[in-house]
Amino acid sequence: MTAPNDNVSSIDSATTHEAPSDNSTPATIVQLNGDLEKGTQPETHQDAPSQAGGPETNTATEKDATAPALTPAPSPIGPPPDGGLQAWLVVLGAFCGLFVSFGWINCIGVFQTYYESHQLSNLSTSTVTWITSLETFVMFLGGPIFGTLFDSYGPRWILLMGTFLHVFGLMMASLSTEYYQFILAQGICSPFGASAIFNASVNSVSTWFAKRRAFALGVTASGSSLGGVIFPIMVEHLIPQVGFPWAMRICAFLILFLLAISNATLQSRLSHRPKPFDIINFLRPLSELKFVLTVAGAFCFFWGMFLPFTFVITQAQRYGMSGHMSSYLIPILNAASIFGRTLPGYLADKIGRYNVMILTMYFSAILVLALWLPSRGNIPAIIFSALYGFGSGAFVSLAPAVVAQISDLREVGVRNGTFFAVISFAALTGTPIGGALAPDVLHGSYTKLQVFCGVVMIAGSTLFVLARGVVGGFRFSKV
Known about the structure:
Blueprint: H1 8-14, H2 25-33, H3 36-52, H4 55-70, H5 85-100, H6 102-105, H7 108-117, H8 125-141, H9 143-153, H10 156-174, H11 179-206, H12 213-242, H13 244-265, H14 279-283, H15 289-305, H16 307-318, H17 323-326, H18 329-351, H19 353-372, H20 378-405, H21 412-437, H22 447-472
Helix pairs in contact: 2-3, 3-4, 5-11, 5-12, 5-13, 7-8, 7-16, 8-11, 8-21, 9-11, 9-21, 10-11, 10-13, 11-12, 12-13, 12-18, 12-20, 15-20, 15-21, 15-22, 18-19, 18-20, 19-20, 19-22, 21-22
């Protein structure tokens, strides 16, 4: 079930009163009202006529059986409050969650450069990129799993599991020396925990906000930008002082502290009841044209989006920037992304989420082709990092808001799971493709990599224009 794009608050209110047209009405009532007996009552009463056989019994039974579908629940879940202490505490917990999950993923360029010159210097660039691309891939691929768990149980147990796996994976990475060990620890275990944290955080915030959802998710997503500023600087300064193993452990302890805040404050506004895992639930959104076009546009954009995060350091070093100065390009990129994830979100609630998404996507793609491609000095590299951080940051914060806009709130976990699972394959393949297009990162040309990055991002932006047309038409309006 989808809803109009221009009245999000009515979506949330309507989903708590309307009964679905399929046979899942009892389960829905259980989920929304938290009353198990009322959820199972219709089945019991439908069997009653054959046992009693009296006319009065039949009449009473019919009334009872239809009551849950026709009468509003005694204590329905109203529309999201769009603010208040509890709602903003959830945003605080989600902010910390994205700081340690997506924020850690945002500093992959630092590890790409370090591994190529230290532990894995005997391997090719394309081989090393599988570690960093797996991080992004696994974090988003876990969306369907954790989306289902969120819809069934809420964020509590997902967060606890994610906390353990993320911290444990980084601790194991601090002990790693072989390629396969980095793959298992930093490429699979740690990002799988980060996936649980990311999905629990984003989905929880979506249940507390409607009209201000894009702004709230923007504030949440800015946590990942701040993490992308802090972690690279920490790693860069800690490794010379305490060595790589203890640098990773100190980062893991900081992550554990912030996740303690997330576990204490993050909660869902909805009542959650266990649901069976059904793969059809994840495939069903792909039958909607607007959802397919949205996912296809995000896939193409995501295919190129992380290439600057991974290669901006080595590209700047290739054309003369010192190693010390180039290490600050990722923090600069992520610092600008803080504003890119908050300001466009605020604007999107005013003029339309699809509208702002399209503008920032085209802006990022043009920066790649018009500024990063011809850049050959320090100043263009720094300016590109700042501007690209602002433009690409909007995609991360607006993507969950766009999915929620075209979804039933009760299915936001599943539909976000489908969305992020699809684009995870773009994250998995994009960086290795970039590594293959620029095999000699310190002496070769980056032209093919940069052209690929810009072209696929433009293709994704154009697909979003088509998705906007399906959702709200091609005339200028709030979409």
